[in-house]
Structure formats: structure tokens, C-alpha cells
């Protein structure tokens, strides 16, 4: 016995009892059920989706952040719905697809509930209609659960807490329509048996399901989402208008057949005549009613003459509604068709203007043919779309990310973009201008002043010699050229002139980056500037156009200038700090000086009441003192040292005080009444004395 067989035998004997077929079948069913449940949860909630990583996009594209770790923004799993998280993001594709399913159920009820209520032959397929009706009811019930737990934005974040979602749903008006559409009106089938209607008994019992039409807002929501998401909005609008017209004509046809039943089939020439084997068929009944409704609403054909008042009123109402519908159709479809061709019309007008100019200026036929071919190529490649105007309303961040994704295949091939920082790439992408060159066009010639650098997006270019025949190199998508002339490398013997001839082999699409835009973008990214400079130096060394001595001297000079600038910046910072300290000290000294001046003023005012005879002299001295104090208080903010020197060189004058009035020298003043302080009172006192 071989060792391999022995090992296998031992392994099989040690595995225990073999499960029966029933147990294996039940385990398989459980695995399949759990697999289907897991896939359904992933489909609805958006979990488990993985994409192939792209290092270039992952580096430069916006990062996707998870929801905050707060209960308000976290969904919870439900035990009743197989662990499904009861929080549905309306922005996900799964929600949009679910709305499409709900719209189909609503459209079914819009068409067949009214049709089956009137055409009794249509309502005889009872078993089929039961299956479809209650399938739509199940979709309605599931949509109610989804609608209740639809997320909404609060402070820019998607709320996913089930309790908050239910409260938000109850605050809206939608819950009323959803509740009405879910009412079990089919209970009336217990007394009104389906399939019991005929030519003498209308309408059919299915009319009780008209409440299902209250779910129409969900269809309108899907229409709005589709019109926003589709790349052909005008075509979708036309389809939506046509569908609305067909539904209105269908409803009007059902109403005509019901009025014919109410008046009596075959009672006159206006109503539907049910007699005859052909007229009794469902196909003829519906087609004739639809034909009559179309003629009436569109007002484009003759209809049978009404004979009684009810018929006249119905026809008049139909004519008025038809006029409004026809005007709406013509206006909407006309504007949609014109909007579909706006870009083509504008492009054609531009091309016609160029043709007229060339004919007026008598441009040669060969050049005119080249211009026309250029227009044709531009329209075929981009539809003459002006990207700047189209994306002008977006912020720079989104514009840069769109440009990176649109031109991803080109940008990932450019070596200078592979290692640069995301901010530099965004700045450069926003400054790129697309230019289209025809076959044989020279993008640049040797010796021309270089003002732009180029990146090849599409096409092939040739680097040719001065004779125009010898091909030195071939450039393809992702190649970069012209950077040597715009980098202003010191020691370049050609200055800022082109060093090669570059010619377009066929139609070529190139990104053009101006010299000024490049330096503005590189100002904040010295590493990327050094990389570009090094590459330019390699190209110049290869052609022997770099003066190494001048280049090294420029590098040394630049480094010394950078060090000098750094030292100057440091010195300026130190001086600024010292100046701030001096200003603070001056402010404190000035405040103290003002306090001392205020005390002196108060002291001078107190001395005015001591001597009544010297009131005028005192007031004059006080005013002089105030003027002196004001002069000193108005001194500019200078240092304390300068203030002291100013006081020493310009001393404050001392006021002369009068002699004290002693009793010995002025004995007559003892009996003298005190003079009033006010000058007006003293004048009155003198006047009284003279009158005596």
C-alpha cells in the first residue's frame, strides 16, 4: 500500500460519521440563503464593493471619508430585515434603481387599473391580474420601508439614525400619500366579485384600487433623478412628454367608453356601437376609443357629431384640454429639439464666419481646405466644447479633479507629474490650455523665443533637423518638450530660445503651459522646480549648450542671496520686536505724565480760592499754566530720555506769588468786607458804593 493511499485512508476514517443526504441538502439551502441575503444587503446598502486600486488616482484624487463615529450618522442593523441597515442613502445608485422599480409598479397601476375598470374583457384574466396587483402591493410596501428610512443632510452630513429618519419622514407630507396608497381597498372584493362585470354592468371591481395612484410623487422623483443623471437630458424630456401624452389619451379613451356605457351603447352615432361580432372584441373597443381620443385631444381630425347635451359638454371639455395639451407639446418638444442642436449650430456659425472671412480676404484654396479640415477634426474629437465655460461654475478643486480624471491616460505618463505633490498638479492642470495642430504644422522652430512648454495628449510629433527631413526623435502621448526655454537656466548658451524643431506628423492635441503660469505654480514648490531644472540641465549637457562655470556661479550666487535674505529677515524681526517694546514703554510713561499733569491742574484750581484780590491774576496764570501743560501733553510719543531733555532745555516758568497781607502792614483791611469772587458781583458792589 502506498504512503499516499495510507494517509488518505487514515484521514477519511478519522472524520467521524458522514452526514445524511437530507442534512447535506438543508446545509446547502442555508448557505445559499445566507449568500443571497448577504448579496442583497450589499446591493442595497452599498457595502462590500471593491475597485481595482489606481495609485495615480489614489494620490491625487479626493479622499473618501467614512461617516463620523456619532450615533446620529451611523446606521443600525435591523433584526426584522435580515440584518439590513435601515438607512438608505438617496445619492447611491442602488436607491436610484429601486426608484425605477417603483416607477414601473406605479405605471402599471396608472394604465391597467383604469383600463380594467372600463373594458370588461380585459378584466377577465383574473389570476394574472391578481399576481401582478399584489406584486405591485409588495413593492409599495417595501418602498414605504425605504422611504421611511431615507437619509437626509444635516450640517452637510448624511443622517442615518433610524429614529431621526422616521421623525423626519413624519414631518413631511409624503407619509399621507404613502398611507393612502397602502390602504387595503381590495377588501371590497368580498362583496364585489372580480370578473363579474359585463356590457350591462360597469365599472369593474378593480376600480377600488385607484388609491394606488397616490404613489405618483415617487415616479416624479425618479424622473428628476434621471433627468439630472443622464447624458442626454433633452432626449429623456421628449420621451417623458410623449409618455405623458399617451397616458392622457389612454385615460380619455377609457372615459369615452365609460360615457358611451352610461348613455347607452349604440343609442346614437356618437357613442360606441357594441353590436356586431367585430365591435364586441376587446381589441376593436380599445383601438376605436384610443383613436377617438387621439383625434379629439390633438384636434387634427373630424369626430362624430354629438347629439345630446352630455355629449356636447364632454366634447367641448376635450377640445379645450386638447388645445392646452397640443400647445404644451409643441412648445416643449420644439424647445427640446432646438436645445439638442445648440452646440452644432454655434459651431456651424463659427465655421461659416471663418469661411466668409477667407472668401472676403481671398485666402488660397489649399489653406482654406486645411482650415475646414481643422474644424471637422475639432468637432469630431470634442464637439467644439468650450471646457472653460462649461466648468466655470465649479470650484477649482472639482475642476482640477475632473481634469485629472479626463486626462488621466496622458498625465500618468508624464514623469514630472508622477512624483510631484497633489497641490502642484492641481495648480498646473488648471492652467493647461488645449491646442490642436494640423499635419505638417511646426509647434516650434529652433531659435524661436520660448514662451510655452507642451505636453502631448494625442498624436505623434517629430523632432527634425534644420533641413526638415532628418528625423531625430519621435514624441507620443505623455511626452514633454519646450521646458528648457521657459526654465531660464543660468549658463544656457541659447538663452531662452528653442533648441529643436518640432513638427506635427498628423493631427495632434497638445497641452500648452505658459511660462508665467509655470513659474507661478513652481514658486511654492522648490523641489519640483529643482527637478525640472535638473532635467533641463541634462538636455543642455547632452547637446553641449550648458556653460558649467556660469551655472555653478549662479547656483552659488543664488544660495548666498538666499542666506542674505534670510539674515535680513531675521534682523528685521529683531528690530520689530525692539520697536514694539519701546512703543509700549513710551505709552506707559505718557500715561504717568498725564496723571501728574492732572494733579497739578487740581492743585492750581484749589489755590484760586485762597486770595480773592488776585483772582484775575490767578486765572491768567492758571490759563498760562494750562497752555503750558497742554503743550507738554501734546508732545509726540517719544522716549522717556528725550522727554527729560526737553524739560531741561525748556524749563517750566514759575509763577510769581504776591506778598502776604499781614495785619501790621494792612490794618485797615481788618474791617473790610470780603469781596465777592465773581467780577459781576464786584461791579454791582462798586456801583452801590458810588450811589451812596
Automatic annotation (TrEMBL):
SUPFAM superfamilies: cAMP-binding domain-like (SSF51206), Voltage-gated potassium channels (SSF81324). GO terms for molecular function: cGMP binding; intracellularly cAMP-activated cation channel activity; intracellularly cGMP-activated cation channel activity; protein-containing complex binding. It comes from the Eukaryota. PANTHER family: CYCLIC NUCLEOTIDE-GATED CATION CHANNEL SUBUNIT A. This is Cyclic nucleotide-binding domain-containing protein. Residues 416-522 form the Cyclic nucleotide-binding domain. It comes from Heliothis virescens. Pfam families: CLZ, cNMP_binding, Ion_trans. GO terms for cellular component: intracellular cyclic nucleotide activated cation channel complex; plasma membrane. It is a multi-pass membrane protein. Keywords: Ion channel, Ion transport, Ligand-gated ion channel, Membrane, Transmembrane, Transmembrane helix, Transport. The lineage of its organism: Eukaryota, Metazoa, Ecdysozoa, Arthropoda, Hexapoda. It is found in: Membrane. Residues 658-692 are annotated as: Disordered. The chain crosses the membrane at residues 96-119, 241-263, 312-334. Residues 679-692 have a biased composition (Basic residues). InterPro entries: CLZ_dom, CNG_cation_channel, cNMP-bd_CS, cNMP-bd_dom, cNMP-bd_dom_sf, Ion_trans_dom, RmlC-like_jellyroll.
